[in-house]
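#lab-general

N.A. 3:47 PM
ok so I finally got the sequence cleaned up, no stray characters, all 134 residues accounted for. can someone with queue access submit it? mine expired

B.Y. 3:52 PM
send it over

N.A. 3:53 PM
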Amino acid sequence: MPITVIMSDNPITLNSDDDLTTAEELFRIHNIRHIPIVQGRKVIGMLSHTDLLRVSYKDSIEEYETEFDTVLNSEFTIEQVMTKNVSAVTTKTTIEEVATILSKREFHALPVLENEELIGIVTTTDLIQYLLNQ
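B.Y. 4:20 PM
back already:
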């Protein structure tokens, strides 16, 4: 079965010149954990919520608080924090192939490309939900 069956269409994206505060807001508002970084429709990197946690300078977090300190935005750029040379799959890649890739790598999301342009994203959560529905 092709990955297009379980991928998220039209993913939220950022450009490398956007700031990390915007990224944090998108993670929170859309309840997502991965954002492809694009130049036009071409993927140039991937930013994860974990990437932001790694560079966060938050001294203390209230029990209900999830926002990062504003110093995050002034200290780092998306390009410095994002993963470059991202692995990607195509619309012809099967669910089984994606499961194999994600099970052997240390990342949890893959951009889905068609003619080298971003059309979707698939995550380990998408795979788990698919398996639970079977």
